[in-house]
């Protein structure tokens, strides 16, 4: 079963629920099967790591944890506020996402 999500990698999103409500950031990864997304600088958790080549000291590292898609809203390219997403065909007949608040296409 394939689910159509309103968020893609690279989108700037606003968190509208949970502990990180009010924050915004760029989507780094979308976990389609779990309906979650990892957002840059949002929902940080501490993770203990062993020493490795990347982190020779080891210790505690702050890392982004996934957030459920329902708690995220794309930011309107025109106003910079959170918006709902609609889908419509553009001039070339290609299905594109647009911001419901301004009607602007979301790239």
- Named at the architecture level, the CATH assignment is Roll
Percent helix, as a range, is under 10%
- Per DSSP, the total helix count is 0
How would you state the average pLDDT, rounded? 91
Low-confidence stretches: none
Order of adjacent strands in the largest pleated sheet = 6-3-2-1-7
Strand-residue proportion:
35-45%
CATH class: Mainly Beta
CATH topology: SH3 type barrels
Structure description:
This protein has one domain (12-50, 59-99): Roll (SH3 type barrels), CATH 2.30.30.30. It starts with 11 loop residues before the first strand and ends in an 8-residue tail after the last strand. The chain is an all-beta fold and 107 residues long. It has no helices and 9 strands. It has a 5-stranded antiparallel beta sheet, with no helix packed on it. The protein has a two-stranded antiparallel sheet with strand order 4-5. A two-stranded antiparallel sheet has the order 8-9.
Q: Quick recap of the structure?
A:
The protein has 107 residues and is mostly beta strands. 0% of the residues lie in helices and 40% in strands.
